[in-house]
Amino acid sequence: MLSLRPIRRFCHASAAAAAIVSSDCTSSRSLSNHIQNPKPIEAPALERLKAERDPDRLFQLFIANAHNRVVIENRFAFEDTIFRLAGARRFDYIEKILEQQKTLKQGRREGFIVRIIMLYGKAGMTKHALDTFYDMHFYGCRRTVKSFNAALKVLTETRDLETINDFLRKVPEKFAIEVDIFSVNIVIKAFCEMGFLNEAYLVMIEMEKLGIKPDVITYTTLMSALYKNNQGQIGNGLWNLMVLKGCLPNLATFNVRIQFLVNKRRAWDANTLMGIMQGLGISPDEVTYNLVIKGFCQARLLEMAKRVYSALHGRGYKPNVKIYQTMIHYLCKHGDFDLAYTMCKDCMEKNWFPNVDTIQTLLKGLKKKEQFGRAKFILTLAQRRVPPFSETHLGALRSILSRNQDGLGKQGIS
Question: Which long-range contacts (CB under 8 A, 24 or more apart) does 101-104 make?
Fold first, then answer.
């Protein structure tokens, strides 16, 4: 008797194969439909915030992502949004965003509240910034000198001498906050910028009596303001006081004093001071070299300026656009158009450009020396500037050489 098992197996296998084929066809159709009708992929929130230009949509987008950690923990996205809303004068939106942020769990972190204080300050909303500081206990956030300094920094932007003084004297006592040297430096910098140099000095003296020792930033800020206000003797006295108290000058302090010496046409003294700082183990930077070069150029000591320029290269520094500008300007002024051309070509090829007046002087000098090929090359480089010079400026440069077009075509570049 024949067994039916193989036949049954075959039937089952056929049915299974058919089911598989059917399933594969269904899956294939489904996949085909999915490919033909893809679900739109939404750009990440940070990208959308960055790209949005409409203040209303920007606000709605930020609010929609108010609990998105990627957004609220991203300092750039936060600041950029507030700056753009401030630019659009939508201070109502700024208030809604920042007040809502205070209610998040991050609002219990002082660093997060400091950011909100500073953002209110940068938007020009000083009262909101100070209210945030005064109300920190409502968010369960402890005040320290960090949030005090943030509020103080915002307040100094008002340039209100009396209010700043009151805040500095009364608030620390009210909230049991110990001010630090950063607090002192914030106030001194603000007073110096406002022109209240005596008051700035008195703040330093009073705080020192309270045990807050001035640091090199304190002295440098005061000296810079004194030198700029033509009070060199007091500035020098402060330098001596700083050294006597064991506070050594840093690079910024030396640059401030070298700047003063150069302004007083004391190029040799500036050069000597640069040597002293090197002897103390403080390396000059591009600012130092530029100041000393400028000092020698102003004193018509171009050979010394060239030596300092060479020393800059010898120490591994590369000239920046300010050094090129200084050298080219004074080389042209004193008639050394060959070296001026070489330097101008070098810096222009790096997309660093002297100002238009300096380029004009160089073109006139090269034209006078009948170096038309060089003049044409400088003009060509000027026309390639990115971003470009204005058509007015380029027209002025072209006009210098317009009468010598025939010569320009015949002369080569050397």
Answer: 101/66, 101/72, 102/132, 102/139, 103/139, 104/66, 104/67, 104/72
What confidence tens digit (pLDDT) does each residue in 101-133 have?
888 888 889 999 999 999 999 999 999 999 999
For residue 359, give the nearest of 402, 404, 389, 391 by alpha carbon. Answer: 389
Mean pLDDT of 321-350: 93
DSSP single-letter state for residue 245: T
Q: Cα-atom radius of gyration of the chain, to the nearest Å? A: 34
For 190, the domain range is 180-248
Of 197, 225, 248, the last residue of a domain is 248
- Dihedral-angle region of residue 355 (phi above 0 means left; psi in -120 to 50 means alpha; beta otherwise): beta
* Token pair belonging to 149: 């300094």
Quickly state the pLDDT bin for 403 (edges 50, 70, 90). low
Residue given tokens 């170096």 in the structure block: 371
For tokens 């106030």, the residue is 187
Domain termination residue (choose one: 248, 269, 287): 248
Count structural domains, the chain: 2
